[in-house]
Design goal:
single chain; 162 residues; alpha/beta; Rossmann fold; 6 helices; Nucleoside 2-deoxyribosyltransferase
Amino acid sequence: MKKKIYIASPFGFSEAGRDYMYGTVLPIVLEQGFEILDPWKLTPAHLIQEVNSMPYGIEKKNKWKELNQVIASHNTEALRACDGLFAILDGVDVDSGTASEIGFVAALGKPVVGYRGDFRLSADNEGSTVNLQVQYFIEMHGGHLITELSGLGESLNTVFGT
C-alpha cells in the first residue's frame, strides 16, 4: 500500500506555480512511489470557478465564506489521512496556509519534509532556514528541510520510506 503524502504549497494560486508544481516537483514524488494528496485538487475546480466568476459584492463574499469551509474541511480530512507532509517553503516568508498545515500534521505526530530552494533570507536568525517555529515543526518527528530539489527523492524515502 502506497504511503500518502500531502503536498502543502502556495503554488496552486498562480499559473506559473501550478506549471512548476505539476511539471517538476510532483513527478519526483510520484517517481518515489508515493500517493499524492493534493489540496489543490480536493475540491472540484468548477466550484471555485463558479464563485470566482461572480461579480464583486456581498453575494460573492458570502459564497466564498461557504466555499472556504468546504475547502478547509477537505484539506483537513486529507491532512488526517496522510502519512506525512511535503511542504514547499519558497517565498519571502513561508506561506501562512503551508505553515498552518505543517503545524497541524506536527501536532498529529506526522513527519514533514520541507523544501526551500529560494535563496532569499527568510529566517528569524542564522540558526534556521525559515521561521524557527516552522522549522521546529518540520524536524519535530524526524523530518528535515532541504534546499535543493535534486535531494527530494532521497529525502522523501529517508523520512517516509516507500
